[in-house]
Amino acid sequence: MTHASICFCSCHKTQESLLSSASGYNNYRGILNWCVVMLVLNNARLFLENLLRYGVLVDPIQVISLFLHDPYSWPAACLLIGSEPVGFLVHCINMAIMLTFPAAVVLLVPSMTPVGGAFVLGIYTILFLKLYSYKDVNMWCRELSTVKAKKLARSLSCPSAQHLNGGDRKVCYPGNLTIRDMYYFVFAPTLCYELNFPRSPKIRTSFLLRRLFEMLFFIQLLVGLTQQWMIPIIQSSMKPLEDMDLSRMTERLLRLAVPNHLLWLIFFYWFFHSSMNFTAELLRFGDRQFYKDWWLVYASVCVCVVYEFYEEWWCTVLKDCLGLHFYKPLLRRGFSKMVSQSAVFFLSAFFHEYLVSVPLRMFRLWAFTGMMAQLPLAWFVGRFLRGNYGNAAVWISLIIGQPFAVLMYVHDYYVLHFRQEAD
């Protein structure tokens, strides 16, 4: 090609600017990297500002005092140890006292700390839901044993000549009624009992160690961020709450929103991913869908799909239990979908309040109200917001709603215990 021909080559053509919608350009990875860099730099400044203002507040030794008020008095540990195996054989009596007895101990024993009480009540609540499912499934098996016994799924922990896919043995009702089968279900990361749980082929050592490392790392991170970031903000919020200074209260609420939400996300990953996968791997429990992509949740229709909103939003473990043993039985008894959905949310709201109010020894219904508020939220989002707007509304409710409830509980607890003592 000659020099003259090069000079007359066209270097222009009809095309749109990259940032125009008509250009079809969609590779914004560089901008995303810029956002990440800006986010890291901004949070680094906040981290440095926090250290300069408060110093290093992380103290692992203080965590022990959250569970043990007196080194020689361990009421929380005694509650966990006190559940006798014979209780599993008398389900009705055991479930009747499963919620009331621990609550009474937490309320009446002065040395019980709020964190220790919440931990124990959480364990007993999980056990209550597991035993309820165990009772229901075996009752259904008894009802169907004369007609469909050969079609039932069967327990993996009982011997039989028949095998599932992969060679795992199975038995049929009542061969599943053994202590071994019971304890497998008690420790399995699920609230829904089956006579035959899916099993993974083997225990993956590398996977198990990764989950263990995540559990240890994130629990330390949760404790450190709580002591270093959240507690100073909460302590500085007491004065504006007492003075009912609306502007300063709003400022404290917004300051608390980011660390509270970050801790909530870390806790979600620590519990529903790391911890439950660790337990599932140890037990070779095959069903690992402990959660769905709730971060994409939005209600796209109207009030009739509140249950669909709940199915996408709640963790799979709790949703399956309430849906199988509470929602569907209500429908079979002739209740409408709306009434059944409201009853499911009411039950969940009760357990939320039970796990907060009883350990704090005060009843303010903030957690209960926040959970029941999901019903009108689902209706509003489904009726007036669609797509990304609905998803943004759910995120806003999470980021703002939770720290508001935290501030209310902390304020009421402070007024009830510490200010009265000072007066």
UniProtKB/TrEMBL annotation:
Subcellular locations according to the entry: Endoplasmic reticulum membrane
A Pfam family: MBOAT
Entry's transmembrane regions: 88-109, 115-132, 212-234, 254-272, 293-310, 363-380, 392-410
GO biological process, one term: triglyceride biosynthetic process
Membrane topology annotation: Multi-pass membrane protein
Keywords linked to the UniProt accession: Acyltransferase, Endoplasmic reticulum, Membrane, Transferase, Transmembrane, Transmembrane helix
Active site (record annotation): H352
One term of GO molecular function: diacylglycerol O-acyltransferase activity
This protein's name: O-acyltransferase
Organism field: Lates calcarifer
